[in-house]
Amino acid sequence: MNYFDMVTSESLQLHSPGLLLLPRENRDQKLELSSYEVRINTNVIVNVWAINRDTRYWTEAERFSPQRFMDCSIDSDYNGNFFQFIPFGAGRRICPGISFVLTIVKLTLANLLYHFQCELPSKGIDMNERFKTSRTRETTPHLDLIPVLYDVAP
Questions:
Q1: What domain count does the chain have?
Q2: Quick one: how far is CA 14 from the chain centroid?
Q3: Strand partners, 144
Q4: For heme, which residues are the binding ones (predicted)?
Q5: Cys bridge to 94: 37, 89, 105, 135, which one at CB 3.0-4.6 A?
């Protein structure tokens, strides 16, 4: 797995597109899940944010560390086969736009890195999050982007 893919996976692990998966109703039979009884016709909501920070699966889950995906069996599996990493959901209700989203994310990041030199502001970046319908930063982070100038040969 190349470093670019590891950064993408780590970004999705720390900042998945959704905090919660859409609610699903248990219609078939009464279930027991981790000593909890889930009755028929009960809505179940999966907390992706909590799964992505579960210390049973992620060491130092709050720290940005793309290297954690280097020797990981999860690799870049976004298809919901590993339930400790489900940024796009799992099963029959998985996000149909996974391929599109991953292509756009990688293409956008590659173009930014190619055309700009990135520098952190001298005062640093506040990474505290605010929870609403989706997660946002408490303050808008600003990264200094310095255009890379190219000589165009005639």
A1: 1
A2: 5
A3: 119
A4: 95
A5: 89
